[in-house]
Amino acid sequence: MEPPINNPEVTSPNGENPLETKRSSLLNLFIIFVLVVLVVWSGVMFWQNRSLKAEEADLAATVQRLDSQVGESESKATLATKKEFLATKAAERVYWTNVLKRLFETNPQSAEVDKRLVTYQALSGSREGNISISVKTRSGAADPYTDTAVLLREFGRRAFYKDLFIPNISSVFDQVGQELLTYTLNLKYAVTEDPVNTLIEKTELTGAVTTPDPNIDTTLDEQITDVARQLRSRDVPLTPANEQ
Asked: Do 61 and 107 fall within a single domain?
């Protein structure tokens, strides 16, 4: 029997196969490489995940801040709209206490007796400032037409009134044969832009602004007489004497 032949390419001195050893080394290197790659990849993924969460938190904070700003802007816009609405309503308001005071102050005092020239029997008004007054001349008046002309002039001299006219006049005679006039006086209450008048209007006071201008002649001049003549002839609607 022949002895075994030792092949150094197949068998190592210690009996190991070199090919197997080489394969094992390569496999170990591959495994180590894969592990390193996995560790690096895991680190990268962990860092990216952390960055994404941080960005998500920043975006959430930004959205919340923007929502807060939008809500604040809407609140400011709503408040501004409410203020504008209230300001508009305040500007449209008519202070009727003030209006009534001025209406009665405009009714002149009679020079003959301690009475007003005419009597306001009824009064109506609208929010737009349109006023309608039912007027009756006083009993015992020497000339109710002249009294009416004086009344028109007094209204025409105030800046608070405009668009005065009398659509019609009716006359009756009392038991002693004196003529009485009844008519409707239409006008528009106009608040002037003067700061003093505006202040007085808001505080519902009356004062110097309702006092006639002392530079205007208050006597029964030719214009008053002319208006009285128109009243007698029923030449209406009429305008204040100072506008004739």
From this structure: no
Q: Helix, strand or coil for residue 180?
A: strand
Residue 58: give the domain boundaries. Answer: 19-92
Convert the pLDDT of each residue in 62-90 to its tens digit: 888 887 777 777 777 777 777 776 666 66
137: helix, coil or strand?
Answer: strand
CA dist 29 and 180 (Å) reads: 130
- The dihedral of CA 197, 199, 202, 205: what is its sign? negative
Closest CA to 242 of 207, 204, 206, 215: 215
Whether 120 and 236 map to the same domain: the answer is: yes
Closest to 15 in 3D by CA, of 23, 24, 6: 6
Position 215, amino acid:
N
CA angle, residues 157, 160, 165, in degrees to nearest 5? 65
Long-range contacts of 166-170 (CB under 8 A, 24+ apart): 166/231, 166/236, 166/237, 166/238, 167/236, 167/237, 168/234, 168/236, 169/231, 169/234, 169/236
Co-location of 35 and 137 in the same domain? no
Q: What is the pTM of this model?
A: 0.50
101 with 86, same domain?
A: no
DSSP helix/strand/coil, 134: strand
The number of folded domains in the chain is 2
